[in-house]
Write the structure tokens for this entry.
Amino acid sequence: MKLYGKDWTRREIEKYVGRLEQIGGLRKMKYQEGPEAGVEMIQVRTGGGLSLAISPSRGMDISLAEFMGVPISWQSANGDIHPAYYDARGGEWARTAVGGLLMTCGLTQVGTATFDNGEELGLHGRVHHIAAKGITAEGVWINDQYRMKVKGVVEETTAFGEYLRLIREYTFFLGENTIYLKDTVENIGFTSRPHMILYHFNFGFPFINEETGFTFPSNKITPRDEGIPIEGYDEWGYPRVGYQERVYYHENLNTYEEDNGKEYANVIVSNPRFPNPFDQTSFPLSMKLSWDVSNLPRFTQWKMNGAGTNVVGIEPGNCYVEGRKVEKERGSLVMLEPGQSLTYDLKIEFF
């Protein structure tokens, strides 16, 4: 295990601490005040500078993430509001969307609120507001490497319709600043069901500022809305009052083969002067988000350079963000057959 610039064995590091949690580990918490009361969190500290909070109350999504105590994710004005306040109609999702490092959209609807076969489908679907069950959070030594796993099950159901099960598993290693995410979505029901999923990763100040640079894997970029220029999609400016969101579809992605034989794409976000919280100095910090394109062939970018809502969304998915009806009309709607499952692999590295 590499920690603090040195290689350690398990017994060597245990000589220095009373409990390993002094360096890093997992801790369960519950909020107690205001509209956040009752929300459960699992705090993850990797010991390498990365810390984050996973919320079993909200689809096992990730809330605030920090590096050396400095935020790298964006938090919405809603805070970590309890999902009991969620209203599934229209665009009301935005009133209880947390932000955080990851908001999952789906599992049967993503994007613009719409109607499909007479069914009202709200913005971005329900999974971000469904509590998980079967939650485990444990750390174990594997030889001289300490591995942490957080796992939970999220089910999107209705009595006379869909029954989709998401099994989510995060893996971390002490001393590393990497998030390994593996999701499996299965159709437990007995009829074919629509399946849409989008990983809404949100990065904010001070990681995202006027000096931040972006490296995208795309060879073609198309704005979702007419009249939106392509120019400036990879730049960031001073937050502006009245800024209108910009959504870009990235296509013809450059990919590479991993050791497991799968094809991956990645996005790199770099800040050349990330602030050191202990003095007036800074250091370069980059984030690389990689994903398996076999089941996540789409990539959407959300640029919201607004005052009070200053955030960039990096969003791999199996669909775009115009809602299920449009996805169906486009002929790209994914259907899960009874008993069928799909697995999604993603990785986030900070370096």
